[in-house]
User: What shape does this take?
Amino acid sequence: MNEERRSGPRRRALKSARLVFGNLDRVFDCTIRNQSEGGVMVKVDNTHLIPDELLLYIDSEHIRRPARVVWRTDTELGLEFSGPPEPLTKR
Assistant: This one.
């Protein structure tokens, strides 16, 4: 049986987001499927090219969060937030 390691409860979600890495020039669209205080689970087409450290841009909240991958399958990632939210400014 898997041990629950979340520090808080997760909430179901359906939010569009983007995984950004490299020199901010690599972008993968994703969908947040559940969210807790400490992280999210996202769905993507393929996780194989996504590194362990990245930025998660949450479109509806106009923020980005540094995050690290704590688990992965072929189409899902468990991300733990590794820093505070950073507001995105509109241009």
